[in-house]
Every structure is written in structure tokens, then in C-alpha cells.
Amino acid sequence: MKKQLLIIGIVAILVSIGFCGCNQVSNTLIPEKNKFVGTWKNTTSHMTLELSSNGTCSMWSYTGTWDLKDGKLVIDLQSVGVPVTYTYIYLFFNNDKTLKLIPTTSTTRIGYVLYKQ
Length: 117
Known about the structure:
117 residues; alpha+beta; eight-stranded antiparallel beta barrel
């Protein structure tokens, strides 16, 4: 009887440990997404990009949604009733206060540098 209780106890501990790791994948994405939330401005082109924690955004005078997919920033906007998708490679600098966005369609890797407000 003691041997059965010991086996049940060990199984219960192993199952508990297994369930503890279930949130690990989603927890790593949340801090990455939090870096983006806020208002970003480009001083050269006077572009303002606002990214909300609920996944909505505004860019120039258009509104839409944003998300991180396959390690890239994807922004879906409605431009004069026509959906437009922008996909960017992104790099953070200066303690996540400076963001460089490089369009995936760019062959020169020239992009936008934005500063968190």
C-alpha cells in the first residue's frame, strides 16, 4: 500500500511540474509585444505609429491592427477602404526606446527609425 501511495505521489509531482511549463511559450511573447506598445515618432518623415496593447494601431491617418508573426511586425491597415499589409523586420536600441523598422520588401535594408514618446 505504501508503495502505491509513493508511486501516486511521484506521478502527481511529475504531472504538476509538466503543467508548470505550459505557459512558458506565451510568457516569452508577451514581453516582446510589450516593447512595441505606445506612441512612436519618426522625426524625418513626421510619421507617427501608435500601437495599443489590444492589437489595434494607427499609422499616419489610417487605423488597423498589429501583431508579431514569425519574428516580424505585421501591420494591417485600411487605406481608403482597401486593406494594406505592411511587414517589417524590427530592431530595438537604446533600452527599447528606439525602434528600426525595415520593410521586408526592401532590398537596401533602409527603413524607418522611430522614437518612443
